[in-house]
Design goal:
The protein is α/β, with parallel strands linked by helices and 315 residues long. It has eleven helices and eight strands.
């Protein structure tokens, strides 16, 4: 009895151990005078470790590498990963092909410089992303070479040409209309890779109210150029070699329809790709940041499953 209690206490304390973390900001790419940067988070020691390439959300219009939640970063590092949270160029100033180019370049940088500078194992890399970062994560399953060992997409999407994005959205259409001149005033023409101003979200709302996101972000019309979107839709590119994938989605998401992950899970099943799909009943967009984040036992339990998935496929 005493031994069982001691082991239980030992396991409890091991779980709550917090590893010291160092953060270093690096420039992984230059586009003209624009520095595109990444934050590298690593625990102490020089041992070779697997890595997580983290992709922030923001509809590909806003957000930055700083969107990585501290509590989640800490759990990844405690689990033995080096975490690299990247910026990428944002739309509409840069269209989707340029954004995906940044994803490829960040992955190539991680496999070379990450190995030399941060003791990253280039053959043990996972990609994790939220919302639009979840979309890019699903793109990584077929557009990166070699393919990542695992993908984790929080409320991501596999189809950027569907009516959910190319038609006025019912949820956003119930909000006060964003005037066209205001929408375009908050964006510009010069490329940028950190969309930290909340005003850019006004452009996003305008796009959702008018079904313009595919045109503004991809630079193509899904009604007249449907085949052009083949290269930008993960759901159209799943094969037996697609990376093992975990999907997490709230069934009350008013931004990215829950059905986007349902459809991805069905496509992965048809191609016999290893995958897990976690439905968060009653969960909305960004459910993992609600109610105190990982302080919420339900969210912490789901995050434990994310770590188990990553360890199984990457470590």
């Amino acid at each position: 009895m005493f031994l069982a209690c001691a082991l239980a206490l030992s396991a409890l304390f091991a779980k709550v151990t917090v590893m010291p973390v160092t953060r270093e900001t690096v420039t992984y790419k230059m586009v003209g005078d624009l520095k595109i940067q990444a934050d590298v988070y690593r625990g102490p020691g020089d041992q070779v470790r697997p890595a997580i390439l983290f992709l922030h959300g923001g509809a590909l219009i806003g957000g930055s590498r700083s969107n990585l939640r501290d509590d989640q970063m800490q759990r990844y590092v405690d689990a033995g990963f080096v975490v690299i949270s990247i910026d990428y160029r944002l739309a509409p100033e840069t269209k989707l092909p340029g954004i995906i180019e940044d994803l490829r370049d960040a992955y190539a940088w991680l496999r070379t410089h990450g190995q030399r500078q941060y003791h990253v194992d280039p053959d043990r890399i996972a990609v994790v992303g939220h919302s639009a970062g979840g979309y890019l994560t699903l793109m990584a399953g077929f557009c990166l070479t070699p393919r990542p060992k695992a993908l984790v997409a929080f409320y991501g999407y596999g189809d950027v040409a569907g009516e959910w994005y190319s038609r006025p959205d019912p949820f956003y259409s119930r909000q006060p209309a964003v005037p066209k001149d205001e929408a375009y005033r908050v964006v510009g023409s010069a490329p940028l890779s950190e969309g930290t101003s909340n005003s850019r979200f006004r452009f996003y709302i305008y796009c959702r109210q008018h079904g313009l996101w595919p045109k503004e972000v991809a630079g193509h019309d899904p009604d007249t150029e449907q085949r052009t979107f083949d290269a930008f839709c993960p759901i159209r590119n799943i094969d037996r070699n697609y990376s093992p994938t975990m999907l997490l989605h709230g069934d009350q998401d008013t931004d990215v329809p829950y059905e986007q992950s349902v459809a991805m899970a069905e496509a992965l099943q048809r191609s016999r790709v290893q995958h897990e799909f976690i439905t968060v009943e009653g969960g909305g967009h960004g459910f993992d940041g609600a109610h105190g984040g990982l302080k919420d036992p339900d969210i912490a339990t789901r995050f434990d499953k994310v770590l188990d998935f990553l360890k199984r496929h990457v470590q």
